[in-house]
Amino acid sequence: GRAAVAVDGLRDLVERHPLRERLRAAWMNSLHQSGRQAEALAVYDDYRLLLARELGLEPSPAMAALYRAMLGRGRTPRPPAGTRDTVRGAALPAAPRD
């Protein structure tokens, strides 16, 4: 559905803005909702390595929670309570840093 359509657009946005965590989270969710869990998890792994190499940082707690939730479930996890943002229907974690 909509998640599959969003995957390509989000990939292009992440390529242009590689350190934008919200875009990566949206891309992960879209991949996961499209049944592409391994690819969604790889997006996180690539981001974690990029942050460490470029800035000496780790992903935000919200991004790490999204990753852990995807590891533990076959369906897309819910965002933290009280936070919801949409990018073409994809759920995002709470206020990750850009």
Quick summary:
The chain is mainly α and about 100 residues long. It is about 60% helix and about 5% strand.
Describe the model.
The structure is a single chain. By secondary structure, the protein is mainly alpha-helical. It has one domain (2-91): Alpha Horseshoe (Serine Threonine Protein Phosphatase 5, Tetratricopeptide repeat). Helix content is 60%, strand content 4%.
Helix content: 55-70%
Helix segment count?
4
How many strands in all?
A: 2
* CA radius of gyration: 12 Å
Looking at how many chains there are and whether they match, the oligomeric state comes to single chain
CATH fold field value: Serine Threonine Protein Phosphatase 5, Tetratricopeptide repeat
Write the CATH architecture name.
Alpha Horseshoe
Whole-number count of domains? 1
| Largest sheet geometry | 2 strands, antiparallel
Which regions are unreliable across 5 or more consecutive residues at pLDDT < 50?
A: 82-95
SSE order in H/E notation? HHHHEE
